[in-house]
Each structure stands twice: as C-alpha cells, then as structure tokens.
C-alpha cells in the first residue's frame, strides 16, 4: 500500500461519489496496512470519507483512532476531529482541541488552514481570521529565514507560531508557499464578514493573484 494507491482510491471516490464504500474500504485497509503508509494515515483518510458521507460519528471515531495510533499523518488529526465534533453538537470539546493545537504552535501552514476553515464553517469569522493570519505568518517566516524576504509577524491577536524554531529547506518553503494563497483567500473572506478594510496581507494576495 502506497500513498499513490490511497490517492487513486480517493480519486475514484470523487468520480463515483460513493464515500461510504471508500470509508469502509479504508477502514479495512487500516487493519492490515503495510509498506509506505502508516495505519494512522489510513485511519485519517477513512474518517474524512465518513465525514464526506455525512456520518460525523463514524468520522470522529476514526479520527480518535488515528490520534491514539500516533503514526505519521498529514496535517493534525485534532483539526479534523474538531470539525466532526462541531457537527455532532459538541462545540466545547471541539474548541478544547483547537486550543491544544494553538498551544503546540504548529509549523505546518496546512494545520492553520484546516483550523481556519473549520472555524469559518462554524460562523466564527474572527477565529478563522486569526488562524489564517497565523498560517500566513508561518509561510512568511519560512520565506524570511530561507531568502531574507517576506513581511514577518502579524496582528497581535493571532496565535503566534514560533518563527525562531523554523529551519526550512527548499522543499519546506515550496510546500508552504502552496498554502499561502488559500490562507490569504480565507483570511480575506473573514475580513469581509468582519467589516474590516484591506491591509498589507490583502495586498500580498493581490500580488499573488496578479503573478499567477
């Protein structure tokens, strides 16, 4: 079992729309996974398929199992679990997970994007704005340390990533840059909802779109 195999399964599911079958298949694969992927990774993907199918309870169970497994995964399973818990009407548990992620000061901008999207979907434009800003700051800090450019820190209310701990290589910067536009787009939508005017981050988004 490889990442490409999992990607192919998910691609087929996008074509067929049969998320339940995909979730069941991935759950089965998780019990006998070997090769280049971790059991936690497969459990996380299975949880996503259950969530796409609208079964947030099953999704939460798979996300919890991924967390308990502790294997290598993409992003942070707590963000996905928080999403499922919000949908299950358990906002206090969900926000506890968000605060745990905040306290860990993640270095992956995709974690910030995932949390920001979860909060935005729950109508928390202020929270989404803070997390999207912090995710953008992670990217810009990586850029600063790699090439000596970028904008640096962000608003005081944002959960601050530990920029001094970032030691990027070229691949890290490239992957982070891929997240920047999505983070800035989400941040801009949140600012519109909050009635805030454009700022330097929005100008950066304009530059990205012009150069795309």
Describe this protein's structure.
The protein contains ten helices and no strands. With 212 residues, the protein is mostly helical. Helix 5 runs parallel beside helix 7. The chain is globular. The chain starts with a helix and ends with a helix. The model is unreliable at 149-158 (pLDDT under 50). Residues 148-172 are annotated as: Disordered.
Instruction: Say what oligomer this is.
Output: single chain
Q: Give the number of domains.
A: 2
Taken as a percent bin, the fraction of beta residues is under 5%
The largest sheet, given as strand count, sense and whether it forms a barrel, is: none
C-alpha-based Rg, rounded = 18 Å
The ordered string of helix (H) and strand (E) elements is HHHHHHHHHH
Helix content: over 70%
Terminal residue distance:
35 Å
Mean pLDDT: 86
Number of helices: 10
- What overall form do the CA principal axes indicate? globular
The counted number of beta strands is 0
Uncertain spans: 149-158
Secondary-structure-derived class: mainly alpha
Protein name: Tetratricopeptide repeat protein
Organism: Actinomadura darangshiensis
InterPro entries: TPR-like_helical_dom_sf (IPR011990)
Pfam family, one: TPR_19
